[in-house]
Amino acid sequence: MFLFYINIIFNGSLREFAGVCGSLRGESLIFYYSVIRLYMLNILIFHFGDSARINLFIKELETKKNLNLNIFNFFDKKDFIHYKNTQPYVDYDGVFLLGTGGKNFDSCIDDKTLYKIIIKDPMPWRKGLETYPNDNNFLENMIYIINKNKNKPIFGLCYGYQLLNYYYGGTFRFLKFKNTGNQKTSVDSNNKLFRGVDKDFYANYNHYYYCENNSYGVKNIATSERLPNVAKQFSPIHFAHFHVIHSDETSMKIINNFLKIVKEEKNKGSFDKFFDLLFN
Fold first, then answer.
1. What digits encode the pLDDT tens for the residues 27-36?
2. Whole-number Å distance between alpha carbons of 195 and 261
């Protein structure tokens, strides 16, 4: 039985692990949970509909053995309910907020509505939202999810960038042109997210809007040839407007750099946390 649980921990997903935890009690449950928390990176992934790009991104992460991925499609009601029911009991090490897919995108709050909300209330975290909001309220649900994980590393990409920029008090405006295609992008090479990445590289964009953010504590870490401030940091949270493509070498470095950030944050006092779980 011991080997069965160990196999679930190292070769299965957290959902499988959660399934067997129902048979564990007291010290046994604490021990097995401690093992997975010590050796694995427990990653939460939210995406907003399906697309080939999103699926390939997730498949790339699935090749990494030290990751335990918890993947939720925000617009899949079963996924969303599962997250809501399990999140009080799961401690995530890092979070990816990805982009939108072609399917079910009409379920998402549209850009014009989001724009009006941002103008009206640019600092949503002040609401607190300690209780889970209505399932049908997209924006409040996202604020709640970010609130619950804001002390952990989060990487927002594309639509995730838009949401995090909004969350941290940024502004949002529509462009007179669609910002699309591969563009020269210059990054802060001293930032941990861009370790080992060329200072200038070509990134892919496909957006009608531009996000600005001059809030206290938000640092601009990248600019493109068309627009400034296309990536930002509010330590340990990073968000980038450009797309990260699974087959692109630079993108892979950026993904791996974020996972290193997650690991570094987790390792701060990790053994203390381990013994706390065992003996407290």
1. 555 555 555 5
2. 11
